[in-house]
Amino acid sequence: MAWDEWEQLKAEAAASGSARMQLNHADPMGVGYDRLKSNKKAWTTAGEGVSGLQDDIGKALAKLDDGQSGLGDTSGCQSAAAQQELYDSWKEYAGKVKGRCGELAELLKRSGYDLAMSDADVKAELDKIKGKYHDTEAVGGQAKGR
User: Most exposed: 9, 56, 67, 136, by fewest CB within 10 Å?
Assistant: First the structure.
C-alpha cells in the first residue's frame, strides 16, 4: 500500500513539471549563474595595470631622490629644513602607495590565475591590504562650514 502511495506522489510531481531547487535567499527564477562570467585575461590585465602603476611610482621615487641629492646640510636654513621634511613625508607616502599597488596587483593576478578564490577570500585579502596601508585623511579643497 505504501508503495502505491509513493508511485502516486511521483506521478503527481512529474505531472506538475520539474521541481526547481530554491534557496531561501535567492530569486526563484534563477540566481544568474547563466550570466556569470569571469575571465582570466581580465583579472590578469587588471593586475598588470596596477603593477604598471607600481613601476611608475618607483620611477617617480627615483626622480624624487635625484632631485633631493645635493641639498646637503639643512641646519641653519629653515626653508631647506622644511623642504627636507616635505621630501621625507612624500617619499614615505609614495613608498606606501607603491607597496599597496604591488600587493593589490599580485592579488588580482592570483585571483584570476585559476579563478578558485571565493568572493569572501578575495575580500579578506583586500581587507588585509587595507589594514596594512591606512589612507590618510584628505586635506584641502573642502569648504569648511560654507
Answer: 136
E strands present in 1-146: none
pTM of the model: 0.62
pLDDT of residue 32: 54
Task: Report d(CA 112, CA 41) in Å as an integer.
Answer: 7
DSSP three-state, residue 49: helix
Please give the average per-residue pLDDT across 82-111, as a whole number. Answer: 89
Query: Distance (Å, rounded) from C-alpha 73 to C-alpha 64?
Result: 18
Q: Which region holds residue 85: left if phi is over 0, alpha if psi is between -120 and 50, else beta?
A: alpha
The amino acid occupying position 25 is H
Residue 138 has pLDDT above 80, yes or no: no
**Angular region, 143: left φ>0, alpha ψ -120 to 50, beta rest:** beta
Contact (Cβ atoms closer than 8 angstroms) between residue 133 and residue 99:
yes
Distance CA 44, CA 105 (A): 9
Q: What contacts 43, CB < 8 A, 6 or more positions away?
A: 108, 109, 111, 112, 113, 115
